[in-house]
Design a protein that fits this description.
The complex is a heterodimer of chains A (54) and B (416).
Chain A (H helix, E strand, L loop, with lengths): L1 E5 L42 E5 L1
Antiparallel strand pairs in A: 1-2
Chain B lengths: L16 H9 L6 H10 L2 E3 L2 H5 L12 E4 L2 H8 L5 E2 L1 H4 L3 H5 L10 H11 L3 H24 L3 E3 H6 L2 H10 L6 H10 L8 H23 L5 H7 L1 E2 L2 E2 L2 H31 L2 H9 L4 H11 L6 E5 L3 E3 L2 E3 L4 E4 L1 H5 L34 H18 L4 E2 L8 E2 L5 E2 L3 E3 L3
Parallel strand pairs in B: 2-10
Antiparallel strand pairs in B: 1-2, 3-7, 4-14, 5-6, 7-10, 8-9, 11-14, 12-13
Helix pairs in contact in B: 8-10, 8-18, 10-14, 11-12, 12-13, 12-14, 14-16, 14-18
Classes of the chains: A mainly beta (54), B alpha+beta (416).
């Protein structure tokens, strides 16, 4: 399965959960997350994420 | 296969860093009542966390201006604002002396550049492969001697060794050198209390790692050290001083904290038999049991940051030049985030993330490996030690220490 992962800390974005504390509602597609959103664990930018096989 | 370099023991071979470390971390049975009192007094309180619990002086930092930052939101604020609360000045006098130019002693942009290279070697999809190839054999080897006995001290015979042995396996260390390796890994952190053996241990580990890197670059394999020795970013290899410092820290960050975390996990479950039973019967509960253990008794109760500019938290001022005791233990027991926070309860619902691995740019690089190790260890114990329970004839486990907490013993019985 491939998912978007933060390359700075390994946090994985789960579309079903979103990131409510980061104001990303559950179900939000990766493409719809704003570019200035930050990784909830380490604070890296969306551009630091890569699609990886888990 | 090339022979690994020989690791040199401390000149004073009678020096026991484990005993000295115990003295420095103290025997505080429970810092949390005091932390709740402090949290009730405010978010920013003058003084050091250490002085609340021990009279052993901090020769590196004791004379410097310090505050404690308490409570979940405030601790998270400090950890996620690295432009205000910096690492370099906070850790240069302590971890910097022990480990050298490690990523913990760096701030952006230097930190950002090196962090990504190191993290790449510890991403979930990488470390998950080590579970079967490295962690399981270590766990099995340590359990074999006590399997038939029906009783064991899981600290002395298991948790105090297995994460270190996972690292030795990564380094492909000669088992005969393991006791010296463990001793130096612990001794190197004693620089913070002024023990000269701290610098000696750092130097000897540095010499060993420099030779190891030279060998691995000449004949790289598929192991972690070979990967780190040869990895390039933007066409550059990691500088030797940064890499050697990281490897020194790996012994403590990867070994010591996982030993403590696993010990606390087992203590939490064994002292709550109904939760142990639930996990034994449903292994899908293991991830939440691990997270609850790390929240309840995180291996590191407080960390440091250096306040670089005049600022405030909750309207309470912190002056530039102040060393900030960032009390992670208070965040993880904050009643506004975790109802009934002193209770060990793996079935907690709808809570925020605990901060045992910190947060922000310095979030623990090894958290995914720690989870793999703890999961494998717990599964093996539950699989191979039927009816695992506390030994009723021995003292109950007591988690002690004000900063790095762990029980000294965990005596158990099981069916054979």
């Amino acid at each position: 399965m491939k998912q978007w992962m933060c390359m700075n800390c390994g946090w994985v974005y789960d579309q079903a959960l979103g990131d409510p504390l980061g104001e990303i509602a559950p179900g939000t597609a990766w493409e719809d997350i704003p570019d200035d959103w930050q990784c909830p664990d380490c604070g890296s930018l969306k551009s630091d994420f890569e699609m990886v096989e888990i | 296969m090339t022979a690994l370099p020989k690791l040199e023991d401390l000149t004073d071979q009678s020096f026991d860093p484990f005993q000295i470390e115990k003295l420095s971390t103290g025997d505080c049975p429970d810092p949390y009542p005091r932390l709740h009192e402090l949290m009730a007094q405010g978010t920013v309180i003058e003084g050091s966390y250490r002085k609340e619990f021990t009279a052993v002086p901090d020769v590196q930092m004791g004379h410097l201006p310090q505050v404690m930052v308490l409570g979940y939101d405030a601790v998270l604020h400090v950890l996620t604002h690295p432009e205000i609360f910096r690492n370099k000045e906070a850790f240069a006098p302590n971890l910097g002396r022990s480990f050298g130019n490690t990523v913990t002693v760096m701030d952006a942009p230097e930190h950002t550049r090196f962090r990504k290279i190191f993290q790449k070697a510890f991403l979930p999809q990488v470390v998950s492969k080590w579970g079967e190839t490295i962690v399981d054999p270590v766990v099995a080897r340590l359990m074999d001697p006590f399997m038939a006995r029906g009783e064991a001290d899981l600290i002395e015979e298991f948790t105090h060794h297995y994460p270190f042995q996972v690292i030795y396996a990564q380094v492909e260390l000669d088992p005969a050198q393991a006791p010296v390796f463990h001793k130096l890994a612990i001794a190197q952190i004693l620089s913070s209390i002024g023990a000269p053996q701290g610098q000696e241990a750092s130097g000897k580990l540095g010499t060993f790692f420099a030779e190891l890197l030279r060998q691995k670059r000449g004949n790289p394999g598929g192991d972690l050290i070979s990967h780190l020795a040869t990895v390039e970013a933007d066409g550059e290899r990691l500088p030797d001083d940064v890499l050697i410092s990281f490897l020194r820290q790996l012994m403590n960050a990867g070994g010591d904290t996982t030993y403590r975390g696993t010990s606390v996990l087992l203590t939490g479950l064994l002292t709550h038999p109904e939760q142990l039973k639930a996990v034994t019967e449903d292994r899908s509960l293991i991830p939440q049991a691990i997270d609850e253990a790390l929240r309840w008794e995180g291996p590191v109760a407080s960390t440091f940051r250096y306040c670089a500019v005049d600022t405030e938290i909750n309207g309470q001022p912190i002056k530039a030049g102040t060393f900030v005791n960032t009390v992670i233990g208070s965040a993880n027991r904050d009643p506004s985030k975790f109802p009934d926070p002193d209770k060990f309860d793996i079935f907690r619902k709808n809570t925020v993330r605990h901060l045992a691995f910190a947060s922000g740019p310095h979030l623990c690089i090894g958290q995914h490996l720690a989870r793999v190790e703890m999961t494998r260890a717990l599964n093996a114990l539950l699989d191979r030690l039927p009816n695992l329970r506390l030994d009723p004839d021995k003292p109950a486990p007591a988690i002690v220490g004000h900063l790095l907490r762990v029980p000294e013993h965990l005596w158990v019985k099981f069916d054979t």
